[in-house]
Amino acid sequence: MKRAGLLLTLLLVASLVSAATLDLRVEAAVGDEYEAQVRSGVEKFLFGRMEAEATVTGHLDDGLVLTLSTETGSLSVPLPSEAPEVMGTLRSALLWDALSLIELPEGARLSYPLSSGFMIEGLETRREGLEYWVVDRDLKRRGSVRVMRVVEGDEMSVMAVQTSGGALLPHMGLERMGTFSAALSASISLTGTIGVEAMVLQPLPRYPLEVRYGIGYSTAESLTVRLGLGASLPLAHFFGTGNVVGRIFSIEGWADLGAGWDDGVLLSASARIGLSCRLSSWRLTALVGTAHAATAENTVNQGLFFTLGTAYTYTP
Q: How many Å apart are CA 272 and CA 230, to the nearest integer?
């Protein structure tokens, strides 16, 4: 009864995560924990690349060899005897060797996994700085990557770093983002200064540089038009993509100039650096920096600051 309840729970969770199903037959004398690890590993490292109606047939024999079959082919994976080691074995086997089990998407897609992202194949335009949505077989967005390096040679190689989303898998498809993003942000500093800003962010063809321009208002500087140069470096470069920190956090730095009006022509300059967290279209930031703003008559704003901000970003 306990075993049936556990399997029912696993099937319910799988149905919420993906419509693909696993029909697993177990002949080996293994416990509930071992079988749960097998099911979880197959769902985690395979289903994201399969169509919603797909069914995977699995057979775990007495020798602990797991054979997986789909309409496109089959794959056999020898599994370890200890349950805690099953997930790692399935990850190593399915991330790349599952090619025989899936139907490759047309067009651009993720290829060989790297520590900070993936190689990319099938791109029509190969340029540093371009960003792509990563989609599963149902065209649902699972994350995003940005081209960080293009290596010329007999066969051009394109390397991309993950910039948002969950755990991605080789052979997932890619959708080109627009060449710019529009963002509406709000921030508050420790001194009580409140600001709002509408801006356009545009990656430059030299990773990880970006340019931004827009208009903003703050209680310290009134209304200003700003132009800046900055960079956003994903923590995947340092922590890899195996944990959420590497996948959604970045080190962000900006320097910008501004012009506005505050009882006279107002000129300003600022520089800031800190962390940003990207959650789908939302971005949270914690930045420290320095600013100077003045008119011909007096200094309006000057000194160090720390701000917390949030922005909603639209990328066509």
A: 9
Contact 231, 258 (CB under 8 A): no
Question: Which residue in this structure is represented by tokens 């720390």?
Answer: 306
Cα 30 to Cα 33: distance, rounded to the nearest angstrom: 8
Token pair for residue 248?
């959604």
pLDDT (tens digit, 9 = 90+) per residue, 140-150? 899 999 999 99
pLDDT of 9 higher than 70: no
Domain 181-314 in CATH 2.40.160.20:
yes
Terminus-to-terminus CA distance in the chain, angstroms? 51
Contact partners, residue 4, CB within 8 Å, separation at least 6: none
Only one residue has tokens 């790349």, namely 96
pTM for the structure as a whole: 0.77
List, edge to edge, every strand of the sheet that includes 73-78. Answer: 21-26, 55-60, 65-70, 73-78
Sequence-ordered alpha helix ranges (H) in 179-285: 236-239, 244-248
> Is the bond leading into 208 cis (omega within 30 degrees of zero)?
yes
230/274 Cα distance (integer angstroms): 12
What's the token pair of residue 93? 């086997």
Domain range summary for the chain, segments of one domain joined by +: 2-101, 109-176, 181-314
**Residue pLDDT, tens place only, 241-293:** 988 999 999 999 999 999 998 888 999 999 999 999 998 888 999 999 998 98
List all residues 6 or more positions away from 152 whose beta carbon is below 8 Å from its beta carbon: none
